[in-house]
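Anyone else keep sequences and structure tokens together like this?

Example one:
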Amino acid sequence: MNSRLLSIIRKEFIQIFRDRRTLGLILVMPIVQMFLLGYAATTDVKNIPIAVWDQSRTPDSRELLDAFRAANYFRITYDVHSEDEIRTLIEGGEVRGALVIPPDYDQRLLEQNAQVSMILDGSDATVGSTALSAARLVGQSYAIKVLNEQAARQGRASIVQPPLDVRTQVWYNPDLVSAYFMIPGMIGMILYFIMALLTASSVVRERERGTIEQLIVTPIRPLELITGKVLPYVMLGFFDAFEVILVGHYWFKVPIRSDLGLIFACSGLLLLSSLGIGLLASTIANTQQEAFLTVMFTMLPTIFLSGFFFPLDAMPKFLQAIAYFIPLRYYLVIIRSLLLKGVGAGALQSEILALAVFGVVIMGAAALRFRKRLD
């Protein structure tokens, strides 16, 4: 590494540390985003507020309510006495559903023909579907318990078995903690967007201030200028990745089941793509605002088609085809498999190869266009 390249790298670090907004974006924003996604953007639906219209008011109905309280999915917040009250509470957003117990519930329970109603607010499909599944599960569990108690009182075998017993096993994330899914994806988002944005802004900032012309007339070669501008963000990108992995592991208990060297090597492949996108954006834009908008233009399709939030298998075929051209798609498979499953590089050969091809092609195209514009 010659003195000219070291001078460019030193100059870039000085500019980064002088710009407090950029420094905050690099050091603080990843942690803020991680906590927001770890706590707020959760798919774990619990403590759903519901109202109860208990028309029976018997020990049997109270036992049923206790079963719903024992499940962490529901929180009984209102005791109502009419359907109009239920409608008012749901329309006002104060509850997400209501449990309606009929007046003859205890009698029908003895006849094994009892029915209760669960009214759910379907305006939020995620909460609604989870509450529906949870209500059915609580009802089935309580029904088996009642059958066992009735059989015991009648002197019959007290074990009532359903006709089908599905025993589930969840590997790698037994408690289905959503943070285990979100935080590895957060590493990809930081490396992809923040690094691309910072690279584009740093180059355009030189052009806005007129210092790019001063650099061109110096003995610095175009390749050295590109390398000197990019290397500081490579180092900062690895620092951000390490920062998120460290906090995610010790705060959110996200496991690290694979080799850190392999994790950072694959992260470096994604950095090639993100920094290449930043360089390409800098050759298109003339101002930092234009550079920001150019990078943001790629953000929406990347978020929605990379598998960061939504599973690709549930998307239409033509969107799945487009997703093959998004580098982040491959990295998310890699990072989640490395952190949660502990697989080796052999199990991820196709994803690693695709990520490497994207990185070389994008960075190569960006470097050629950047050199041509300098010349």
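And example two:
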Amino acid sequence: MDSTGNLPGGVTVASGFQAGAAAAGIKYKQKKDIALIYSAVPAVAAGVFTTNKVKAAPLLVTMQRISGGKAQAIVVNSGNANACNGEQGVRDAQEMAAAAAGALGIPEELVLVASTGVIGQKLPMDKVLPGVLAAAGAISPAGGALAAEAIMTTDTFPKEATRQIEINGKIVTIGGMAKGAGMIHPNMATMLCFITTDAAIAVADLTRALGHAVEQSFNMITIDQDTSTNDMLVVLANGLAGNAEIVGESDAFQLFQDALTDVCTSLAMDIAKDGEGATKLIQVEVHHALTIADARRAARAVAGSNLVKAAVFGRDANWGRIICAAGYSGANFDPNLVDIFLGDEQVTSNGCSLDFSEERALEFLNNDTVRIILDFKAGGAGAVAWGCDLTYDYVRINGDYRT
């Protein structure tokens, strides 16, 4: 039983999965904006959703359906969030799912639905429904890449990840796609993500593995401290790898959970890297904290600080902003023990400034990935969070998002 590593692709790499995409013209002409993921057989399904009290209609529909632990398809539109549309929004989400079910010849209750885009605008069903039918007509085992493009909004590149592991002589594949560039903040980081696997695993164990993976990945990214109405991560496991069912407290479960976490982490880092207007990925590492909770609080606060993000954009080694963010994070630590590093350059010792090299610090701030390290020197726990710099383009993009 071992890991066989990474391979290119996304949601159609695992056995029995197909995907399709179509351009319905929901917001932009010619842009693919409908995606459909389909499993040859009903799959075990698990999901996590936004913590925002305001939840979009497709989330309400999907949360109800996934409670049964089974699904066979997911239909997604971009360009319109179908959020804050009342009962009409719920009916439209149900109609999207019904159109996909009819085209695929499967029960409607096995179709999950997701949307992303502008909040508070009616879904143009005269465009959406033909788009759903077109996407269903285009499904194929090679359709994953087009589906990943179709769910993009302000993203600048599609986000896909795949891992393979060997479990008791059977190759198990996990593949995923995600979108997200703005309205990204922990507590089920703002995005859409869909993961497929041919593993045989019970719903309780899939849910448990997913919860662990999300805590390590999507709940450790932030772009702008806005948690959306449409956050959704769904995993489908159709069992077609032929492995003995994975159960908790086993080596097989640990291997599967680690691979799922790898896929989620890869997608989460892509989302942080692709933050609206971003030029740099920020990786914040907290070492030797008292507890994992303390490490996570501090790492997320530093990654999410607008002042830290602006300093990274301006290539300013302003470590005071870093320790300030850690200080208001709620993490338990002694400020008089903290060491801070920018890359390999130590800028703070025991909470006080060092006579560090501004030139060396600038070298690290010029990297595409800027590593910020805080050593609390208090315990054995650690955590990593990801964010991006805050640029002029972020304001430009969000200043006219509806147009």
